[in-house]
Amino acid sequence: MSRADVCVVACADAWRGDGAVLASPTGLIPRLGARLAQLTFAPALLLTDGEATLTYDDEPEGWLPYRAVFGVVAAGTRHVMMGASQLDRFGNQNISCVGGWRRPARQLLGVRGAPGNTVNHTTSYWVPRHEPRVFVERVDMVSGVGHDRGAVEIRVVVTNLAVLDFATPDRSMRLRSVHPGVSVADVRAATGFPLVVPAEVPVSRRPTGDELALLRERLDPDGLREREIR
Description:
The chain has 230 residues and is α/β, with parallel strands linked by helices.
């Protein structure tokens, strides 16, 4: 079992209990997580090939043309797992620029679909490198809105070190679990703002034998997931 395996199952668990919603994972590890969830505890989860076909285990299952996706978004029947160049304590996300937005030091993707995602349906985040320049006191530009700005639900943030959520009275970020071999002090040191840390912080769930077999033999036999953990 590797750190990447733990991250995959943590991403899979983000969709646990969602039912028949459209999962939109960004990145290899979130996509492996969504496919693992669909093949195990969440058979009703909907996945696409990235174009217009709904799939089950990468086999065609239905038709979802692009024009229909906006209806799914507006209805709230979607759970996207996006990336983030910056995140703050309330889940405000930046994927647009680093530095002042009028003259940024670095231009990034732009806001893309982040505003619509965060105000219409459940959103989670995958951060392959947990460090202070990502987890910041204040994002340089708000792309996806956080709980202090009207987000519907920022469910979890999965990183290479931990799983974080917003199960606090003011819906600020909380440490839910640390991955095997990671300490609470490691996560605190890698976060640029004070986290809410419970008295007892469990270790993130390890994959079951069946989940490991699916990952190694069917979903990612070439081990490409290991490259996403930096």
